[in-house]
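Re: the request from the purification team.
They wanted to know what the chain is likely to look like in 3D before they choose a buffer screen. I agreed to run a prediction and write the result into the notebook, where they can find it.
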Amino acid sequence: MTPHHIRTYRERDRKPVLDLFCRGMTEHVPATFRHMLMLPGTLLIELGVPLSLLLFSGSWLLAITSSLTLLLLLWFLARYNWKLYVATCLRTDMADITKSYLSACGSCFWVAECGGQVVGTVCALPVKNPPLGKKQLKLFHLSVAKEHRGEGIAKNLVRTVLQFARDQGYVEVVLETNIIQRSALALYQGMGFRKTGHYFLNIIWRLAGIPIFHLLYQLPSAREGGL
């Protein structure tokens, strides 16, 4: 296992950071497709429509074509959601990382470097208008290169955010993830984050049965009354 270190983002990191981000999001497409395929409603349509066409037309070709068309539609929907998310990020916070995350106190962007290469990212911004006036920090864009997963990099990146939050006087760290990102969800919960709610990003994600989970980590000083 090659050692890694975590440091603050530099402008020269822009291309590898964006490449890592885009690759990481694209990797979720197959899992999203499988999740959608196994939904009861999807299975009913996938089996029912070709069977109905076969019974009414007697054509195996028509039945097979309809089944393949439905599969292609599911793949398109799975891919569309992630492409839309990437496109949104690339024109908002990721368009100018330095401006978005390093231009003010209370926010930051980190990269994990291994062998001179950027292999992980995470960033954080203060939450605007947090509930009950609590000082909250929101974690974004945790990502680790596929070939370096299982080396503890993701956990160390999250620890970096938590330590930053303590140093900056935040009370809670929050984030959002979804049911497709199972390993990330397990990591967060294993580190003490807890679910506080969920919502659906859009009608497609609702139909696909993919909720976005709100997670919250209460910093020890807040849990222990400052002890």
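For the purification team: The longest helix spans residues 60-90.
Please add any questions underneath this entry.
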